[in-house]
Amino acid sequence: MLKHELRKKYKNLRAEISPTKASDLSLALANSSLRIPIWDFFYYHIFLSIEDKNEVDTLPLITLLQGKDKHVVVPKVVGSNSLENYLLTDNTAFKESAWGVPEPVDGIEIPENKIDVVFVPLLAFDEMGNRVGYGKGFYDGFLNKCRKGTLKIGLSFFGAEPKLITDVHKNDVKLDYCITPEKIYTF
């Protein structure tokens, strides 16, 4: 399938999930993360959810990471298509971006080469680990700057799209894992 078709399909599917159900599924995803081998690392980049888009709520996963004394890193959009990464601390102040994303105002910037694990936002993914985001390229650009061994983990309320994504671009970065409520996919 084409990315624009998948964006439309999965935005509609996500819109049908009640807030209570989304909260339950998000907690299940966080708990499922305990079953993948990522807990010996130090720096974990995680997106902050856009509430209006009914995204996976990453707060339970952030709480889990902090409970394991991991360094949590959150993104901020700079320029037209780049991300900066800031260490999440008790003093981190946030401001909502034009897209409705909570972003750190300032703080301790963490370079891409220090990040070990990235929890990647997505709308859909296929059985080969290709993902569909919102189409702005922020995460593909960011992931291409990370170390080769950085683990990329998608979080999705839905399973893999059975039809392969046909318009994959050469700069698109594949996932290593995707966590869903029913299954953990390994690519």
Automatic annotation (TrEMBL):
EC number(s) given by UniProt: 6.3.3.2
Keywords: ATP-binding, Ligase, Magnesium, Metal-binding, Nucleotide-binding
GO molecular function, one term: 5-formyltetrahydrofolate cyclo-ligase activity
Pfam families in the record: 5-FTHF_cyc-lig
Required cofactor names: Mg(2+)
Top enzyme category: ligase
Domain of life: Bacteria
InterPro entries cross-referenced by the UniProt entry: FTHF_cligase, FTHF_cligase-like_sf, NagB/RpiA_transferase-like
Keyword set includes ATP-binding: yes
Catalytic function, reaction form: (6S)-5-formyl-5,6,7,8-tetrahydrofolate + ATP = (6R)-5,10-methenyltetrahydrofolate + ADP + phosphate
Keyword Nucleotide-binding among UniProt keywords: yes
Cross-referenced Gene3D superfamilies: NagB/RpiA/CoA transferase-like (3.40.50.10420)
NCBIfam families found in the cross-reference section: MTHFS_bact (TIGR02727)
Family: Belongs to the 5-formyltetrahydrofolate cyclo-ligase family.
Record-given protein name: 5-formyltetrahydrofolate cyclo-ligase
